[in-house]
Amino acid sequence: MPAPTNIIGAARQQTVFAVKETMRGAMAFPAAAAPLIIPAGYVDLSQNPSFTNSEEIKNSRDVLAQFQDAMLAGTFSIPIYARPDGTAGSVPMGDVLFESLLGSKAVSGGSAVVYSPAMSKPSFSLFAKRGHTVFFALGAVAETLRLSAKNKGAVLFEVGGSFMQMGWAGRDAVKTTATADATSVQVYDAKKYTVGAVIWNATKADKGVNGYTVTAVNTITNTLTLSTGVGAGGWTQDDIIEGYLPAGTSVGAPLESRKTSLTIGGITKSIKELSLSYDDKVKMLDDEITTNGYPTDYAENNRSVTGSLSSYFRQNDMAQFMDGIAGSEQAISLIVGDTAGKKLQIDMPRCKLQVPKVSANAPTLDVSIDYTALGTEGEDSITLTWK
Length: 387
Known about the structure:
The chain has a domain at 267-386: Pnp Oxidase, Chain A, CATH 2.30.110. The protein is 4% helix and 43% strand. It is built from two helices and 28 strands. The strands form four sheets. It has an 18-stranded antiparallel beta sheet that branches. Strands 12-13-16-15-14-17 form a six-stranded antiparallel beta barrel. The protein has a two-stranded antiparallel sheet with strand order 3-4. Strand 15 and strand 16 (223-226) form a beta hairpin. It starts with 13 loop residues before the first strand and ends with a strand.
């Protein structure tokens, strides 16, 4: 048997990529030098089937049978710091996430990268190595973003969304030696792999060109069918077989929250915290009957952009009560960073302000204002500009 046979996954062993798909649900695998996503915490992705109880009536109060339904869409969440590239006009870390989230990306070389709302949202393939296993999600789409800007730490985004199909490549070993160019490999437990997984021989450091794609899994014979033949010298019994991801390249450095400025209606304002909630969810078509039992498409829905501002309650803030009652609209702009190539600007040109709320935070009073970002002509309620 292979050794070690049952290692425990280490939480610190985490590698994440997101690659834009050309067709929704069709895997796009990261290139050797693809940009890494470095989570500021732990990535999470899951997909679970649902079951329907049998309607047959028998003289028992137990549920005696269940039927598996078509697979529901999966969900993911990734916390990341705002990481500009460092060069104006170059995409930030998480480029694919931001484009999927809002829908549109415009690159002005040497100047800026602007993400703005669009009618359609592109999909991507998500890969996450967690300990000894590589998980992947196809047909992923970013749907939510949460931002809380304070004067401590780095700017943190919480990005969430859904996807069509999940797969994985675990860690096992060759059971029967495979000769050079063989396109099938017998392992000890083929259930550790799914079709679409990309693997390599970690013992021989044989990854082919950019990993070997598993095209079929036979859990009876524990045989994996590969898209291309294994390398020269073959794969020897008890060679370790793992999920493969490239090394990738890191992007930029996190932006510090303390370097944040805010304007409301063009006037700079001191605040304690700004929160932003961006919701642009899709309807995964998981109620269709499909040939593979998974959702194969999604439909975009309406978006919502809301948030709140909190600050100390100063006497001149009383004017904001009248503004809230009158349904006043103001432009809100948040800029983080002070160096070209290392700045993020979030613009919401038309925000409906609510009546402020005063609360005690002894020895002072605080005031908070909720807002909703509105569109003007449409698809222009918010922009994220990296410059």
